[in-house]
Write a structure and sequence with these properties.
This protein is an alpha+beta fold and 168 residues long. Helix content is 38%, strand content 14%. The protein contains one helix and four strands, in the order ββαββ. Strands 1-2 form a two-stranded antiparallel ribbon. The protein is rod-shaped, with a radius of gyration of 51 Å.
């Protein structure tokens, strides 16, 4: 007695299901789309094939509407903006060596300013000592530098301030 199959195929016409190799899925008649049927090839192999020409799927007709102005503007601006970015990138790549040189020149100028701020007072102090000017109060001779002392007092936040100035 033949062993029963785990599935049963119901068809309207006499049909013998093909023997499929192990691991192949079984296709039920309900899963076969219209216009497709089992055919026997000249070498005896049974396979699924289109048996009648199928009409192409209907493409929905879209009514022609005018394109909005903002869409036209955006479509025209997009390539120009992209082209501008590309041109700027190319320009920067060509200018990079010059920009690096200018950066080094600016750092050198900053170092020169710092050196001048430190060196000028030292040179002036040395020049005054060598010539003897500015070392004494009023005479230009000996004595050191002049000291000015201010004593200021005030009463209250908005009170009048009084003060004295002493030269030594």
């Amino acid at each position: 007695m033949p062993e029963p199959t785990p599935y049963e195929i119901t068809t309207l016409h006499p049909f013998t299901p093909p023997r499929l190799p192990a691991g192949q899925p079984v296709i039920l008649p309900a899963e076969i789309p219209p216009g497709v049927d089992w055919v026997t090839l000249p070498n005896g192999v049974r396979t699924l094939a289109y048996t009648q020409p199928t009409p192409p799927p209907q493409v929905p007709v879209i009514s022609s509407q005018p394109v909005p102005a903002w869409a036209k503007t955006t479509a025209l601006l997009a390539p120009t903006v992209g082209g501008g970015i590309a041109a700027g990138s190319i320009g920067l790549s060509h200018a990079a060596p010059g920009l690096i040189a200018m950066s080094h020149a600016l750092w050198s100028a900053a170092a020169l300013v710092v050196a001048a701020v430190v060196a000028v007072p030292i040179l002036l102090r040395t020049a005054r000592r060598a010539t003897g000017t500015g070392t004494g109060p009023g005479t230009g001779q000996g004595g050191g530098s002049t000291h000015i002392t201010q004593n200021i007092t005030a009463t209250g936040l908005f009170g009048r301030a009084n003060g004295t100035i002493n030269h030594r």
